[in-house]
Design goal:
about 500 residues, alpha/beta, Aminopeptidase, Urease, subunit C, domain 1, 2 domains, eight-stranded mixed β-sheet, four-stranded mixed β-sheet, 23 strands, about 30% strand, binds zinc ion, carboxypeptidase, hydrolase, metallocarboxypeptidase activity
Length: about 500
């Protein structure tokens, strides 16, 4: 039995064709720049003088000077400790965009990207001229790199007054806050980019994916209303996310838009500038955030192009809300079902550990800490160990003293771990001196902190059937039978 004849079938095909055709025509075209182009541009214009995230105000000054031919420089004022804060203007267009970075002194990723962008903008005679011309003719851009130079000097969040500048938008107790507020008022930008870093423990909620970039179009009131100003910020963010999903799929989170009445982003949105928050998180294998620096360059350049061409108008606030939320569910290490003993009974607990960074002269070490324990299924570890049947076991201090750090090598330290020693003593070393050994080094104390409870230092062994299988040293997991290569960021105690 024939259901349709040949003519009907042809009509059906025609109908299908039209349907597909219409669908394609209705889909918004991407207005993003090609990812490969953005990547190439970054490689070409990377500022080679900045190679890590702990650069200081003094490192930036010659780089700012370098651009004085092509940018208009304006000193806006000074920080509490007297460091200059400079605005750099570029472009001759109508639409005004202001970007400020490093309001928190230890959040430097975007600052690096801005200096790459300055190199890009000032280039000429290559395949990027068309983009540059579009930006130059449509936009007037005001860049303020490193709003908190005193915080950057100490590589800490707050300024020299120990005030969080992002809670000083209204009171303006800090000169840096006055500078930023005046910079906005003088310029009255249409768009604003508030550039930060977030902790590496942020993830895309309920997934093990690290939130390498998080975004927010801050709310301007407690009701979380959306007006035209805020909507434009949302639309621009959708375009940025489109780029990011091609490079770091699933690794973009959206911040909660609860209103913070003291924050700059929220207030600048309120004052009529479409404000976009970019938070650079972590990326495995990128401790100095050089890959994330590239991502910043790519999304900022693309966003500027979207603003210049009004490409962002293709996107909707609905698409913005489809970006998944940020979570704070990452741990450096999760040990699952370790047997711990209380009152002679064994209990299997998951132990969740973070190794937080602490500053040392121009570098850092980590401080391992037990963050939580029990049922840790809502967390994700960068490293996880199924430790069912393993017992928590205490470590010992090796009795003989070593001369100094150089007299202990990696192999020797590993041998001592296998024998149940978690720490060695040295005669000559400075307290807090940095080292990369897989064992604790003591100079000013005879023993080391340990335990398995919240806040304890994660220095212990795992033992199975009377044999030591793993050492946990300052939160680093070391498989004693099969140690992997890893970098230990340690200090002398
Ligand atoms: Zn911040």
């Amino acid at each position: 039995m024939k259901l349709i004849n040949r003519n009907q079938f042809s009509l059906f095909l025609l109908f299908l064709f039209l349907l597909v055709g219409c669908k394609t025509a209705n889909e918004p075209e991407s207005s993003s720049l090609p990812v490969s182009m953005l990547e190439n541009a970054h490689q070409q214009f990377l500022e080679p003088a900045i190679t890590h995230r702990r650069f200081k105000h003094a490192d930036l000054q010659p780089l700012i000077e370098k651009h004085q031919q092509n940018f208009e420089l304006k000193e806006l004022g000074h920080s509490i400790e007297g460091r200059s804060i400079t605005a750099m203007y570029w472009g001759e267009g109508e639409t005004k965009v202001m970007l400020w970075s490093q309001m928190h002194g230890n959040e430097s990723t975007a600052t690096m990207a801005l200096f790459d962008l300055f190199n890009f903008l000032e280039g000429r005679g290559d395949e990027y001229d068309e983009i540059r011309n579009t930006l130059k003719n449509q936009l007037r851009i005001k860049f303020i790199p490193m709003i908190n130079p005193d915080g950057a000097e100490a590589f800490k969040r707050r300024n020299a007054l120990d005030i969080d500048l992002n809670r000083d938008a209204i009171s303006q107790i800090s000169p840096e806050a006055v500078i930023l507020k005046d910079a906005r008022d003088e310029f009255e930008p249409d768009f604003g980019f508030n550039l930060h870093d977030q902790q590496i423990y942020y993830n895309v909620v309920n997934t093990p994916k690290q939130a390498t970039i998080s975004v927010l179009a801050p709310g301007y009131n407690y009701e979380r209303d959306i007006n035209d100003v805020r909507e434009r910020a949302m639309q621009t963010i959708v375009g940025m996310n489109e780029i990011l999903q091609q490079v770091i799929p699933g690794q973009v989170g959206k911040y909660d838009d609860g209103f913070e009445p003291r924050a700059f982003g929220d207030n600048i949105q309120k004052w009529g500038t479409s404000t976009i928050l970019i938070e650079s998180g972590g990326y495995v294998g990128d401790p100095e955030k050089q890959f994330i620096r590239k991502l910043n360059f790519m999304i900022i350049l693309d966003a500027l192009n979207q603003i210049a061409t009004k490409g962002y108008e293709k996107y909707t606030s609905q698409q913005y809300f489809e970006i998944p939320d940020n979570g704070f569910q990452l741990m450096d290490l999760i040990l699952k079902e370790v047997e711990v003993e209380v009152e002679g009974n064994q209990y299997p607990v998951d132990i969740a550990i973070r190794r937080r960074e602490a500053n040392a002269e121009d570098s850092y070490f980590v401080n391992g800490s037990i963050e939580d324990l029990g049922d840790m299924q809502v967390y994700f570890g960068f490293d996880e160990l199924e430790a069912t049947g393993h017992r928590w076991a205490e470590g010992k201090v090796f009795e003989e003293e070593f001369e100094n750090l150089a007299s202990i090598d990696q192999g020797e330290a590993m041998e001592l771990l296998k024998q149940g020693y978690l720490a060695v003593k040295v005669k000559n070393a400075e307290k807090n001196e940095l080292h990369n050994l897989p064992i604790l080094v003591l100079k000013t104390r005879e023993d080391f902190p340990s335990g398995w409870m919240i806040g304890n230092a994660p220095n212990f062994f795992l033992e199975k059937e009377g044999e030591l299988t793993h050492a946990i040293v300052n939160g680093y997991l070391i498989d004693l039978k099969n140690p992997k290569d890893q970098e230990f960021k340690q200090r002398v105690y």
